[in-house]
Design a protein that fits this description.
Keywords: Cytoplasm, Cytoskeleton, Microtubule, Phosphoprotein. The protein contains seven helices and no strands. The protein has about 100 residues and is mainly alpha-helical.
Length: about 100
């Protein structure tokens, strides 16, 4: 659903706010780096899976720090993934006992 604020912005501003160019550039780079694998299932499916991973927040897994830092969505996705991985450490007190 489109918000009234979105409709008030020019297209280029909306795209800049959402960092669409960052994701398009990354998608094309990923496509070129993995072109042998992609030839098995097609470019359209690659872009579909890439942007689904962006929406799900899994696109940051195994990525360099500069990519994670590039957008607010990437940073939030990293924090959610980090929290999911390590939330039990805090609950369990680290899981390690000091040697006696």
């Amino acid at each position: 659903m489109l918000s009234p604020e979105r409709l008030a912005l020019p297209d280029y501003e909306y795209l800049a706010q959402r960092h669409v160019l960052t994701y398009m550039e990354d998608a094309v780079c990923q496509l070129l780096e993995n072109k042998e694998d992609i030839s098995q299932y097609g470019i359209a499916r690659f872009f579909t899976e890439y942007f689904n991973s962006v929406c799900q927040g899994t696109h940051i897994l195994f990525r360099e720090f500069s990519f994670i830092q590039a957008t607010p969505h990437n940073r939030a996705s990293f924090l959610r993934a980090f929290w999911r991985c390590f939330r039990t450490v805090g609950k369990n007190g680290g899981g390690h006992k000091a040697p006696s």
